[in-house]
Amino acid sequence: YFMTYNCGPDGNHSIMLRTANHPAGPWSAAVPIFSASEADFLVHRGDSVGGPDDQTGTDGDIYGPYLVPEWFNDTADGKIEIVYTLSSWLPYQVHLMRTTLEPQR
Fold it and tell me: Among 18, 39, 54, 91, which residue's CB has the most CB atoms within a 10 Å radius?
């Protein structure tokens, strides 16, 4: 089982992942799989000049990672690709994301 959520203070949100063998847990420690600091290609930054939703001096942010398990994939080299939606603010958009995980051995 996989669980994703956004977490972090002061606009430094990260998308976190936890895994478990059963829905009731125990759940793994949280692992960041995407950070707002990596989201420059998705959101406006305070010094950007953009379209009608740009608010000068305000940074955009990321949230709402919803898993799409139907599109998960096991790779030939033993890794797992997970797919999830990711919402952004400034601008309001929904993005389709893919993250490749390497299982702990």
Answer: 39
